[in-house]
Amino acid sequence: MHLGLSGLAGGFLFGTAFGIPAGGLLMIAQKLAGETLQEKRNRERREQYEQKLAEWQSRLSVTEDLGKMEGDARGQSQTENSRRI
């Protein structure tokens, strides 16, 4: 699509007329909220990572507990077998 020099100038003026106020409103909204979009995104990522880390650690502890219980059960069965003999 080719609009020529007048189309280029019109697009420039249109973009400037609506882009600058929209950017200003976005900056004002971020200042009122107390954090920028980048800070919010980083905070949410950190919270999600901490949640996943806690979940992984709880799963690991359950796995370790099952391993200990299995080892204890094997030890008891060997003791019982030696008593039977």
TrEMBL record:
<protein>
    <recommendedName>
        <fullName>Complex I assembly factor TIMMDC1, mitochondrial</fullName>
    </recommendedName>
</protein>
<dbReference type="InterPro" id="IPR055299">
    <property type="entry name" value="TIMMDC1"/>
</dbReference>
<feature type="region of interest" description="Disordered">
    <location>
        <begin position="64"/>
        <end position="85"/>
    </location>
</feature>
<dbReference type="GO" id="GO:0005739">
    <property type="term" value="C:mitochondrion"/>
</dbReference>
<keyword id="KW-0472">Membrane</keyword>
<dbReference type="GO" id="GO:0032981">
    <property type="term" value="P:mitochondrial respiratory chain complex I assembly"/>
</dbReference>
<feature type="compositionally biased region" description="Polar residues">
    <location>
        <begin position="75"/>
        <end position="85"/>
    </location>
</feature>
<comment type="function">
    <text>Chaperone protein involved in the assembly of the mitochondrial NADH:ubiquinone oxidoreductase complex (complex I). Participates in constructing the membrane arm of complex I.</text>
</comment>
<comment type="similarity">
    <text>Belongs to the Tim17/Tim22/Tim23 family.</text>
</comment>
<keyword id="KW-1133">Transmembrane helix</keyword>
<keyword id="KW-0812">Transmembrane</keyword>
<dbReference type="GO" id="GO:0016020">
    <property type="term" value="C:membrane"/>
</dbReference>
